[in-house]
Design a protein that fits this description.
0% helix, Sialidase domain-containing protein, four-stranded antiparallel sheet, Sialidase, mainly beta, Sialidase_sf, five-stranded antiparallel sheet
Length: 210
């Protein structure tokens, strides 16, 4: 899955669709591209960016959740929010577009979410906080126990952005995030943190060199 621009300029804020190609032979060949989320779907005032697609496979119920964040007027902190669709047949068909009450989201992930061993689905996002912190962005976890109600955790650390998440052998969650402006003057750093309550809270960040 990826973003496919339908405008003539390259920008995170250009109107774009989320499209999918599917392989049934372990990646040897791929089917035709088809639009899963159209940038005009459900919008009364035209098109907007569908950005940074992010998915979770619910292995308990055999459902794929495909998330995107909508950006109408650029990264202002006012017009960005989360939407998703689900598929119960391996991506052949998709349900209605659902809005999530989670605003000011500039991007999901990157990478994909996971189903924790407890059954909870967990991923991560980056929020705009231009009016509340000096570092513009902050990463946080995004989780659900039933697929209908989604919650977000506390911020990982001001200035964190693209992030990925994984479950460790002991059940803790590990989040790895890019500092938007580097760390202590060094550009090649990653910030990591751990959660002992399946994503609801996070410990202090630690510096990890790339």
């Amino acid at each position: 899955m990826w973003e496919a621009s339908n405008q003539t300029f390259c920008s995170d804020e250009s109107a774009s669709n989320i499209v999918l190609r599917k392989s049934v032979d372990n990646g040897e060949s791929w089917g035709d591209a088809k639009v899963v989320i159209d940038s005009g779907e459900g919008m009364e005032n035209g098109r907007q960016a569908e950005r940074h697609t992010w998915s979770i496979y619910d292995s308990v119920n055999d459902v794929v959740y495909l998330f995107s964040n909508r950006n109408v007027n650029g990264p202002t902190g006012c017009d960005c929010w989360v939407v998703y669709k689900t598929s119960s047949d391996g991506g052949e068909t998709w349900g209605e577009l659902i809005d999530v009450d989670e605003g000011d989201v500039y991007g999901m992930g990157l990478a994909h979410g996971i189903t924790h061993s407890t059954g909870r689905m967990v991923g991560c996002m980056r929020k705009i906080c231009r009016n509340s912190c000096p570092e513009d962005y902050a990463s946080r976890a995004f989780y659900s126990d039933d697929g209908d109600n989604w919650s977000s955790s506390e911020f990982l650390h001001a200035g964190t952005t693209e992030c990925s998440i994984a479950e460790l052998e002991d059940g803790r969650l590990y989040m790895n995030s890019r500092p938007y402006k580097g760390w202590d003057g060094e550009p090649n750093r990653r910030l990591v943190a751990y959660s002992e309550d399946v994503g609801e809270t996070w410990g202090e960040v630690e510096v990890e060199e790339r």
